[in-house]
From TrEMBL:
Family matches, as InterPro entries: TM_pro_TauE-like, TSUP
Keyword annotations from UniProtKB, A to Z: Cell membrane, Membrane, Transmembrane, Transmembrane helix, Transport
Membrane topology: Multi-pass membrane protein
Top-rank taxon: Bacteria
Location in the cell: Cell membrane
One Pfam family of this chain: TauE
A Gene Ontology term for the protein's cellular component: plasma membrane
The protein's name: Probable membrane transporter protein
Family in the record: Belongs to the 4-toluene sulfonate uptake permease (TSUP) (TC 2.A.102) family.
Ranges annotated as spanning the membrane: 48-68, 75-96, 102-121, 142-175, 195-221, 233-252
Coiled coil segments of this chain: none
Amino acid sequence: MPELELTTILLLALAGLTAGWVDAVVGGGGLIQLPALLLTPGITPLQALATNKVASIIGTSVSATTYYRRLQPDLTTALPAAFAALVGAFGGAALASQIPAAAFRPIIVVVLVGVLALVLARPRLGRVTELRWEGNRHRWTAAGIGLVIGGYDGLLGPGTGTFLVLALVGLLGYAFLPASAIAKIVNLATNAGALIFFIPHGAVLWQLGLVVGAANLVGAYIGARMAIRNGSAFVRVVLVVVVAGLLIRLGYDVVAGWTS
């Protein structure tokens, strides 16, 4: 691990705290935490990605536990999606060094524009749970969501929790709050899947990951309790803000790549 100034460590901890809160409410904490790690002197992009997963899995464990105790999320959805997401994240992490993230960003930007337009155009979306299917069709769709978004998380990362919430609401018919609860369980698996690949390759900076993870844990606990207390309407507002932020961030990366 490179020698870091105390100010740098404190700023990274603050990024972890904020990211944990955002992730617990609606996902998308990687918008804050991963860029902070990428900007840290002496850390390679692969180390930043791997260390981000360590910090994220600590916070996600707390928020997933908090949601589970308070809301009892539907495990017939969460478990198939989580297993598929673990497999997808491992595969995505393995591809991370082979396929440039820039190749995927234009596609993600287009998807985000559509998602933001859909959420704003349908204010009642995600207010109540109205499941579209039952039985095997429901479970296979959940597994497909986990596999695709898990692959994205292992490969690129930012916005994974947000994409999970949106898919659970838009494709399966959950309200925003139960979707967030299920997304935390699935996101826990995507982080684990990526770490299964990263740890043997020595990419994790453990000391830094644990420091940022401790701050992420505090933010995750506060965020999960706020989401549970304020309900789906609160989650929807935070989701719109996070999607807009993700769109600006990735859109800037795309434009910068075209002009460089």
